[in-house]
Amino acid sequence: MTDNRFLEISVSGQVCALPLLSVREVISVPDITALPNMPAFFEGMMNLRGKILGVVDLRKRIFGKKPAANADAREVVVVVETERGEMGVIVDAVNRVLNLNEGEVVAAPVRESDPVAKYVEGVIKKSDELVLILNMHRLLEIGPAGGTARVAA
Amino acid sequence: MDDFELELKHDFIAEALMNLEEAEQAFMELETSTHPSELLNKIFRLAHNLKGGSRAVGFPDVAEFTHQLENLVLKLKEGQIALSPQNVTTLLKSNDRLMQMLSGLKDNLDAHFNNADLIAEIQVWLDPSGAPVAVHAELEVSVEFQAPLVEDAAAPSSQDARFEVESFFSGDMDEVVALAGAPVVVAEPEPVAQLRPDPVKLAPAPAAKTHGSDKDKDELVRVSLSKIENLNNYVGELIILQSVLQQQSADTKNPLLHASIHQISKLSKEIQALSMSLRMFPIKPVFQKINRVVRDTAQAVKKEVVFETQGEELEVDKSVIDHLGDPLVHILRNAVDHGLESSSEDRVRAGKSAKGNVTLKAFNEGNQLVVEVRDDGKGIDPNIIREKAVQKGVIKTAAGMSDQDAIMLIFHPGFSTKSETSEISGRGVGMDVVKTNIEEIGGRVTVESVVGVGSTFRIVIPLSLAVLDGLIVAANNDTFVVPLNQIQETLNLARMKVSYIEGVGDCIELRGAVIPIYSLADRLRKGASSRASESLKDKVALLVKTKHCMMGIAVDDVVSTQQIVVKPLGEDIRKQKGWLGSCILGDGRPTLIVNMTELFESDVTLKDWKENVAA
Question: Do the Cβ atoms of B527 and A36 come within 8 Å?
C-alpha cells in the first residue's frame, strides 16, 4: 500500500509536497560549512547531533536561484532520507501534513522542455491550488547529472 | 522447526566455520611440519567434533562426509597411510567442501549435498587396493558415542554444557581413538538416540580452547560488530563534545573546571583507544588464506615456490581485513603465475635458486600499515607494458613516459598484459580492481619492478580509518583538516625566499631542491593553477610528498593539531577527488578533511609541472 501522506512545503512561492515517510525531522537552519567545487545549490554540510549531512537548497535546486529575501521568510531545513542516505533540504516553509484520499494524486502532465519538470513526480489537486509532488531522488542527485564541478579533471 | 532448534543449527554452523578455518591452517602446516602427529591429532579432534555436532543438530550430509574424512585422518595419524602432498590435497579439498556445505546450510538449512566424488577419493586413500568398502556408518558412530556417555556420567555436574564438552575432548581423546580403532562387533544405535534430546552438549567447542591454551585465562566473548560500531560512534561523539568543552573552557578561569576537563579528556582518550581496539583484528587469517592460495596456484601452474610471511601478528581494523583479502589474493596469484619464471630451468639459467621465492610482509610504518608482496621472478618489463598500453588504447603515446609510470599502467582499468587468460589469474579481474579495493579504504598501492630481478607490490593503508591526527589549517577564510601523516614539515614562507620562475610558478629552494608552491585556496576555488594569485609572503607552506615530487601547499595559517574522528561523507560528495571525509571540530562545525596527496597528485598538475620544467 502506498502511503498517502505528504509534507506540504513552500519553495520559492510554489507549494510542493514531499512523501511524509521520507521526512525524518524539521530543524531551523544550522551553521552550514560550504564545500568547494560543488554546484551552487549544494549549500554544504551540517552537523546534526554528530552526524554530518549534506545540505541542498531546494529553491536553488528547482528554480535555479534564490528568490529575493521574503519579509516573513521562515526558512527551515527538512531532513529527508532517501536511498542516497540522509540529507538536509532548505525550504522556505513547512506548511502542514496532507492526508490524502485515493484519487487526489494524479499524474502530472509536465512540459518536457521545462527544467523543473524532471523533479515533478505527480500533482495533488487541492480545491484552491495544485501541489507538486517532488522526486527526492532526482533532487538530491549531485552527480554529473546535476552538473557537478570536479575538483580535479 | 522451532526457534530453539533453529538457533542450535545456526550456532553450530558459526562454530563449525570457525573450526574449519583452524583446520585449514593445520592442513597447510602438515606439509612442512616435522611433527605432523600433533597436527593430525588436532585435525582429528576437529573432524570428530564436527561429525558429532552435525549429526546431533541434524545435518546428515555433513556428518557422513566428516565421518569418511575422519577415517582418513585416523589412518594418517596412526601411520597406516604415509603423508604425501597428494593426500594433503585431498584433505584440503575436503575442508573446502565442508566450508561450502556449511555456507550452503547457512543460507538454507535444508540444503542437501552430493559428496560422492570426494568420498570416493577418500575411499581410494583408505583402501588403495580396489573397490571402496562399504562401511556401516551407524555402527561406527555408536562406538564413538560410547565415550561421551561414559564421560558425561563422570564429568562434574557442571551446568555449563560447553565445559563438559571441553573437558571431554581435552581429556580422553586417546580413549576415544582406541575405541574407534578397535574392531567393532556390536551395533548399538541407542547412544545416538540418547544424545538427541540434549544436543547442545555436542556443539563443537573451539579446539584452541580445549587444548594447550590454559595459560590464556582471559575469557573471550563474542560481540556483534554492529554493537562495536555503535560504541565507536558514541565514543566519537564523546570525543567531539570533549573538544568542544575544552575549547569553551578557555574563556573561564575556574581552576576546578579546568582540572575536571583535563581529567575528562584523559579519560575519554583512553576510552577511545579501548573502543577502537575492539575493532582491531589480527591479520593472521588473511595470511592463512593467502598461504593456501599460493600453494594451490603453485600446484596448478606446476611451479615450486618458497612462500614466506612476516608480520602476521599485526592487528588492523576490521574493515582493512575485509578489504585486504581479495586484492592480496589477486596480487599473490599474479606473482606466482606471472611473476615467477615459468620453469625452474629458466631460473637456474638466470642464476637464481631453482625454487621461486615469494614473500608477504606486513609491518607498521608511522600511522600506516604496509603490506609488501615481493617475488624474485622475471620482473615487469616497462617496454612490454608501454607497447600493450598503446595497443589497447590505454594511452595515446608512450613517448616520454618513465619506466615507473609505465609499470603503474598495470593498474589502469581494462589493462592486462596476458595475451591469453589463464585459469589461475585470468578471472577477468584486473589489477585495477586491486587498486579500487585498496583506495576504497584510503590506501594506496604501488609496484616497483626490475627486469630479471623481481617485483614488489606495496600496499599502504592508514592503520585506523576512524581516527587520525589532523592539522587544522585556515585557507580561503575557511577551516580545513589535513591528515598529519601527509605533511612532512611546515615552513613559514615569510622567512623563505619565494621566487617566481616562468614555467614553474612559485617555488622555494629547500636543502638544494626546488619545491613548487601551490595555494590550497586557489586549488579549492577553481582547480589547477600554477601561479598563486595571492601573495605568498605571509603564508605557511605544508610540505607534502606526492608520488613524484615534494610540493609545498600554501595555507593562510596553521591553527592547531587535534585528534579527529573521521565521519564519512555522503555518497555523492565522496566521489570528489581529494576529500578524505569530514569531521566535527571543537566549535561544532563540520569541516572537510583534505587529502593533500590526492588533491595535488592529480595527473594534470603533475604533467603541467613536469612539462613546464622541461620547457
Answer: no
Element (H, E) at B30: helix B3-32
The pLDDT tens digits of the residues spanning B282-303 come to: 888 888 888 888 888 888 888 8
Residue contact B571–A84, C-beta within 8 A: yes
Measure in Å the smallest separation between the Cα of B602 and chain A Cα atoms: 7
Q: Hey, are the CB atoms on A152 and B527 less than 8 Å from each other?
A: yes
Q: Which letter does DSSP use for residue B567 in this model?
A: B
Query: What is the average pLDDT across A94-101?
Result: 86
Phi, psi angles (nearest 5°) of residue A36: -70, 155
ipTM of the complex, rounded to two decimals? 0.72
Q: Secondary structure of B128-177 in the HEC alphabet?
A: CCCCCCCCCHHHHHHHHCHHHHHHHHHCCCCCCHHHHHHHHHHHCHHHHH
- pLDDT, tens digit (0-9, with 9 covering 90-100), for B545-590: 776 677 888 888 888 887 777 777 766 666 666 777 888 776 778 8
Within 8 A by CB and 6+ apart from B186, the residues are B142
| pTM metric for this prediction | 0.49
A123 touches chain B (CB under 8 A): no
**CB–CB contact A36 B233 (8 Å):** no
Site from A29, A32, A37 to mutate, B interface, most B CB atoms within 10 angstroms: A37
C-alpha–C-alpha distance, residues B56 and B5, integer Å: 11
pLDDT at B192: 41
Neighbours of B24 (CB within 10 A): 23
Residues 6+ apart with CB under 8 A from A70: A92
Q: What is the pLDDT of residue B587?
A: 72
Residues B577, A38: C-beta atoms closer than 8 Å: no
Q: Does B240 touch chain A (CB under 8 A)?
A: yes
Q: What is the pLDDT of residues B321-371, one digit of tens each?
A: 888 888 888 888 888 888 888 888 888 888 888 888 999 999 877 667 889
